[in-house]
Amino acid sequence: MNELVSKLLYITRADIGEVHLKKTKINVQELINEIIEETKLMETGKIICSSSNEICYIEADISNVKELIRIFIDNAIKYTEKNGKIDIYSRKNNGNVYINIKDNGIGISKEEQENIFDRFYRVDKSRNKETGGVGLGLAIAKSISNVNGAEIKLESELGRGSSFILVFKE
Ligand code: ATP
Ligand code: MG
Fold first, then answer.
1. pLDDT digits (tens, 9 = 90+) for 49-93
2. Neighbours of 37 (CB within 10 A)
């Protein structure tokens, strides 16, 4: 219950513009490596890797960016079968920096892709699987990325896997 309350409080604060950002220059490659090491310690039973990391920097609140990536990794772990693979990598193009969290899990159908960023929304199948969770992770991710000037793109195919892509200005 506590976690639910703090998640809701965060979204509400972000809604009314009451989040204090400490923007710094972030080395994306270093940040991804750090998060990968942390995730490996959790012994998730999944393969966690980084297929490529271009040297790139973004201006954002580092604890916010960590939280964002963790939300996507948390989902990638939950919605991937045993021995699933999670690839976290970055690249830059045309003044944008892309941070990609890619899994080969259950995937999300085209129809559901519009809904999953809504508060408390969970795809039926994941509800049945008793994965735990209330459906706030992606709603929070949307708030956090908004206040940091980032965008979230989603590429997913049912049964094949998903890529959640954070797009920052370089
Ligand atoms: P919470 O994050 O609050 O613990 P949750 O994981 O169910 O709960 P969200 O993170 O907001 O909530 O995700 C919403 C729904 O989107 C999930 O219930 C799941 O159905 C779907 N989803 C999210 N990420 C993935 C993914 N990587 N693969 C497949 N489905 C996903
Ligand atoms: Mg989640």
1. 999 888 999 999 999 999 999 999 999 999 999 889 999 999 999
2. 10
